[in-house]
Amino acid sequence: METSLVCVALLGILLFGLGLAVSLTRGRTNVAAGTSGDPTDTLHKLVRAHGNTSEYVAMLAVLILVLGSRDSSTWGVAAMIGATASRYSLAAGIILSPTLEKAHPLRFLGALGTYVFGLTLCGALLRSL
Q1: What is the pTM of this model?
Q2: Which of 44, 92, 97, 121 could in theory staple to 35 by disulfide, Cβ–Cβ 3.0 to 4.6 A?
Q3: Which fold has domain 2-127?
């Protein structure tokens, strides 16, 4: 259970940290709403990283918490850690990329890991029934 709580806390830190970064950047750039749409713009990249994170972390957190409350297997715990690391990788790949028009290795690995580990968590939960 401890691993699942750490993973959920880290996902929360990622989500709220990105939200804070968006708000601070909006304040610094005087852009109250929307973005320029420029794939090289820092605000645009932060908004995309936050939006993408918010699309996935809630479901991952639920899966991780429920699975963590059961007698989880080693591969289930590995999937929790992998899913959490994947979300950080994806966010870093979006933010660190010079432009969102081109693929970034961290973004690719983060997206792939999110799908693989997310589906693994679903399978682990079904298996625990």
Answers
A1: 0.91
A2: 44
A3: Four Helix Bundle (Hemerythrin (Met), subunit A) (1.20.120)
